[in-house]
Amino acid sequence: MPRTADAVGRSVPGVSPQDVIGRDIGLLRDVMTNWFESRGVAVARLDGLTYPVGAGQSNETLLFTLVEPNDAVQELVLRIAPGSYALFMDPRFREQQMLLKMLGEGHHVRVPEILWQEDDPSVIGQPFFIMRRLPGWVPVSQPPYNAAGRLFEATPRERERLWQNALIELTRIHRTPVEALGFLSRGTDGSGLKQQFDHDVAAFRWALAGREVPYLEDALEWLVAHFPQTPVDGLSWGDARIGNMMFDDRFNLTGVLDWEQCSLAGGEQDLGWWLLFDTLYSKSIGLERLPGLGDRATTIAAWEALTGQRATALPWYEYYSGFRLATIYLRKTQLDRMSLPGANIGNNLFTRLMSDLRDLPPPPDMLETYASRP
């Protein structure tokens, strides 16, 4: 029986950086007003300063409006580097800024424009950058778009338009020239995929924090044994899904968001992640896919036609994506002090999906005891 939208939302626990940090918004408004004025930006007031609804699991992000003395208005986004609440071993905060500037200035991909950046952590506790807010709406994952929201309420033709525009932009990412992307390299040993994989293994050990999860150790052995023979280097967005894209009222794409997992692992890595999330927010949580969204075969064929590449190792990339998500979940259980039946380091939404991908028995629960948050 399909779950309700609220229950689905709880399948991926909703604690976010702002829940833990508990930032004083009034103080932040005063500090940011002074910061703008120190850079010659006249401020009559800063309105809003709110966290986006249904998003923000990895980076502290706030929306706000800057009103100048002449009543000119700028709609902006404040993106703050992770501090103590860090889901990623290496969130690549500086690389995100460099990549967004390169993609935007070269008109390679529709991304937010970075207007200011601050590397000094003493201003608000962490480095940050400020982007121009893109117009539009996001098919958020909580509640999932297959259960509620703007996409759920759209017609099949509108959904098809959104899916086509999203896939075109995804493949524009993968056609981005790599010559200027050396700053994303994680070293000189092997392909971009091998470098990223080695990093992800290290991140897995970091997220374990001394714990043992035999199911994921076995998964890692499988990934090593079946590593792709001829991976193609290229820009990988890292979190490729429509939930990280914005669209206007006509279902045209206005921008691509959230680049903290960017790498040179190649486009097929993104395609595997994209397909995995398609399953994750439909079959895995008992929901039917919305009519109009391209199915698996159509998505793969369109991606190959638009990139000129062949998807030769998709089962491996999908399973690898599940492993990466399970690694993030390992870290999140520790940060959120969370361990419940069906939502723990051994048995969770991501490890169950990994089991389905290889037709394995469901993973066992591994319940932990955490002290309450101070």
Summed up, what is this model?
Helices cover 39% and strands 10% of the residues.
Strand-helix topology:
Blueprint: H1 5-9, H2 17-21, H3 25-38, E1 45-50, E2 60-67, E3 73-80, H4 93-105, E4 114-118, E5 128-132, H5 150-153, H6 156-174, H7 192-208, H8 214-225, E6 245-247, E7 253-256, H9 267-280, H10 296-307, H11 314-336, H12 349-357
Antiparallel strand pairs: 1-2, 2-3, 3-5, 4-5, 6-7
Helix pairs in contact: 6-10, 7-11, 8-11, 9-11, 11-12
Question: How is this structure best described in words?
Answer:
With 374 residues, the protein is an alpha+beta fold. It has 2 domains: 5-132, 2-Layer Sandwich (Phosphorylase Kinase, domain 1); 150-357, Aminoglycoside phosphotransferase (APH), C-terminal lobe (Aminoglycoside 3'-phosphotransferase, Chain: A, domain 2). Helices cover 39% and strands 10% of the residues. It has 12 helices and 7 strands. A 5-stranded antiparallel beta sheet has the order 1-2-3-5-4, with helices on both faces. Strands 6-7 form a two-stranded antiparallel sheet. Strand 2 and strand 3 (73-80) form a beta hairpin. It starts with a helix and ends in a 17-residue tail after the last helix. The model is unreliable at 1-13 (pLDDT under 50).
